[in-house]
Each structure stands twice: as C-alpha cells, then as structure tokens.
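It would be a great kindness if you could assist me with a short task in structural biology. The matter concerns a single protein, recorded as an amino acid sequence and a row of backbone structure tokens. Could you please explain, in whatever detail you think fit, how the structure tokens follow from the sequence? Thank you for your consideration; the sequence and its tokens are set out here:
___
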Amino acid sequence: MKIPPPVNPGLDTLPVYVPGKPIEEVARELGLAERDIIKLASNENPLGPSPAALAAMQQVLANINLYPDGNAFHLRKRLAERLGVAPNNLLLGNGSNEIIEFVGHGYMAPGADVVASQYCFLVYPLVTKLFGANFISVPAKDHAHDLAAMRAAITPETRVVFVANPNNPTGTRLANDELLKFARDIPPHVLLVVDEAYIEFLESPPDFISVIRDGTPANILVLRTFSKIFGLAGLRIGYGVGHADLVAALEKVRQPFNLNSIAQAGALAALDDVSHLQSTRANNAAGLKYFATAFRELKLEYIPSHANFILVKVGNGQQVYEGMQRLGVIVRPMGAYKLDEWVRITIGKAEENERCLSTLRQTLP
C-alpha cells in the first residue's frame, strides 16, 4: 500500500543528512570490538565533557519526571552575562541545527532565495529545500567563502545568507575586517546567519556580539553550540544571538520544552569550566600541527584549518575511508560535499592522532 502523497513536494527529492558513523554501528557492521575503534569523524571533543557538567547532570536525574524549564531561565541568564547581552537577545535550540530550522520557518518559502558558499554545512541547503526556497550556491575561492561573489549573488528575492566562520567542512576562516564589512553591506531585507559553531577555536575571532549589542543592524543572527569545544554533542544544545525583535519572532516557532533538564544543567556547568576549555584548545592546536606536519611529509594536499578538524586530499576519499574503517578508525568521506578526493579528520587525543595517521598511511592508494 502506498503512503499518501506528501503535501510538501520538496520531500520527493529532499536528501537525507548522513552523519559520521557511530562506533557501535561500525562494530556491528565489521565485527570489530567497540574498544578497538576510534571515531574521528564528527568533530566531537576527544577530551569528553567537562567533569563539572557531568556532576551537574547527575544532580537533576532525580527530578526527571518533571518537565524542564521551558525558558531555560538559568542557562539563558548565565549566557547573557557571559556575552554581555540581554536575555531576550538569546534563542535556545536543540542543537544549532534547530535554530537553522527556525530560520527556515521564518524566512524561507517558495520564491525566496538562500545564499551560501559552495562548500557549506549540508544542513543549509537541506533546510532551504525543506521549505521550498531556492538555494544559491556561490563558487568558493581556494575552498573558502568568496564574499564579493556572495554579495553579488544577493537579489531582491534573497531572504537569508549563511556564512560559517570557521567553515565546516573546510576549516577555513575569514579575515575579521572583511567579514564585518560584508555584514554591514548586507541589505536590510536579508537575514545574515553567521554560524560560529567553531568560534572558540579561533585566537582572535570577529566580534559580532558587540554589533548585536549595539542593536544596529538588526538583521544578523549568530549561531553557537555546546557540541564542539564544550564536548556536549550528545545533549544537543545550541543558541542564537540576535536583535531582541528578531529573537522574539523566531521564538514563535520554537517548540515548548525543546531543551531538556539534563542538557540545561550540563551546559550551565560547562560554561564556567575554564580549565576544560583551555585543555581542549591546547590539545586541538597540537593535533592540527601534528597532522599538518605529517601531511607535508607525505606530500598530501591539505587545507590549513582553524577548527577542530582537518581536510586532506587522499585520492579516492570513499576508498580510503572504507579502508581506514576496516582497521577501526572512522573518518569522514567528503563525497556529499562534492569533494570526492578528500577525507575530513577530527582532531583527537595524541594517541588517536598517531593511530589515525598510521592507518591512513596503510590505506593510501
């Protein structure tokens, strides 16, 4: 029996987002022991979550029969204090992906255009298609955003522009002055979404929070997440920072209780664990240097990264990915991004990086 035809015709051709494979799935598929597998595929924090976050989450388990605070008062208040904004400048989501979907509800519809760079996070075109809007992919420049070309792609039909800095999957970053100028030049009818999922890994990031704090322009939404440097990917917590009126409009499409109690407690505690953040940054910097040095020695092309992963050209990316997986190392093939010759490697602990490199050597064509 056939299912009823979807009312949304975009579902017919909507692609399915395929994440990095979990350890458990690889173990089942290949008959490997989970303890013998390492995952360097999804840009997760190899040091794990903050111990303070683990302790805080444990404390709320006794009350898990109660609904969470639908407004996440304490987390919102602490985030606002940390950023120097008002609580009503903050929009909380079940991962920053949910906030991208909020943007879809508010700004995407048939006839609207959405602009992003060629090598962008796959969720941008996916959400655009979900809401029936047109996705405009602007060719990259040296695997990075070409801001001039993106500005030229904006038309009266454009409603959203996505810029990720640092960018996933390439790890490239934009010069602060160029990006801030691009933001000032965005027409007022266009929402600029600045995705800063990896911003904590930058030494000197652009200061969009001050722009939002000043209140002009009002068409900027900054996305951040607890999934990366905070090591809380399994909790699914992201947040947006924007003008109070913009946040109020997007709050209308947020589901009640979208942040569970455990996640709120963990994120609140993680915010103040400075030691964990410093250890993560130090581990990441050492890992990036290790892989860059190794790739130069192997004469492999790579893209210098400003995030917690690195993209390397290996020939047949799918073949190398499968070969490494058979040896118990999970990386990310880049075919979905039309980078068939590349794989993306998340920075792990030193011993994980060493094993990954050794496995890569074994599987290179």
Notes: The chain has two domains: 9-48+275-363, 51-271. The mean pLDDT is 95.
